[in-house]
Amino acid sequence: MASPIQFYRNFQALMQQHGIRHVLTSGMACVEYGIQQITKDTDWIIHPEDLTKLVAMLCACERGLSGSNWLVSYRPLFGAPLLQECHEGGWTSHLAIREDRSNREHLAALRPLLGNLSACDDTRLERLLIVERAIWECVNRERYHVYQHEWKEFYRCWQNDQIGQWPSREPFAQQHRRVAAAASEFNLPAAPILTSEQKRAMFNRGIQRAVSLLAATPEEMQTVLFPIDVILP
User: Which residue of 36, 68, 78, 171 is surrounded by the most CB atoms within 10 Å?
Assistant: First the structure.
């Protein structure tokens, strides 16, 4: 679920893409300029002539055509529809925009902790976030070691060929030609991780390290453990 500041930036980007003239005002403007830290909504001044574009944009977002996949509705507050004549007459409009729950369920399948937020108090959530982060860091550490090993082997062979100082002081185009030729000559693999077995082994080593570092329980691991393809696509 997007934070208020993330929503503001996404919404603003969409309006810019649709050519909707707008100005940010009220609480989120204070957040943007560092006067306050957070607000629960955003307030916009939209050019009345562009309200038709805004309605079209919101409809596209609700159908998932823009990638936003929102649920959009009017709020039960004192206000008018998004019509040019109403806003030129001084009215305001009030909308509620929510992320589609089906999208959240999809994200929860990729990041299981999202599906367990309602069952967590602040302390438990903080602990689970630490465990989740450790998993990412430890698995990525195993991945990095593969690339580090391949680079060291390549560089050792290249050094034996007397490459001289590297990086050199040559123009970048010349540096690029040299390192590209060396990568071909001394077999620097373009894709060091090729098989699912390699990925699974790295993933398992990373998980074991995270468990060892944090003494994570099986229940904690089950709550936060994401599919292997999320971190090693």
Answer: 68
**Domain's final residue, options 73, 99, 125:** 99
Asked, for residue 218, whether it belongs to a domain, the answer is yes
DSSP code per residue over the chain: ---HHHHHHHHHHHHHHTT--EEEEHHHHHHHTTS-S--S--EEEE-GGGHHHHHHHHHHHHTTTTS--EEEEE-SSS---S-HHHHHTT----EEEEE-HHHHHHHHHHSGGGGGGGG--HHHHHHHHHHHHHHHHHHHHHHHHHHHHHHHHHHHHHHHT---SSS-SS-HHHHHHHHHHHHHHTT--S-S--SHHHHHHHHHHHHHHHHHHHT--HHHHHHHPPPHHHH--
Does residue 74 lie in a domain region? yes
Q: pLDDT by residue (tens digit) across 5-16?
A: 777 788 889 999
More confident: 167 or 148: 148
Pair 78, 120 in one domain: no
> In this structure, is residue 201 part of a structural domain?
yes
Same domain, 85 and 147: no
- Residue 59 in this model has a pLDDT that exceeds 80: yes
Residues 9 and 70 both lie in one domain: yes
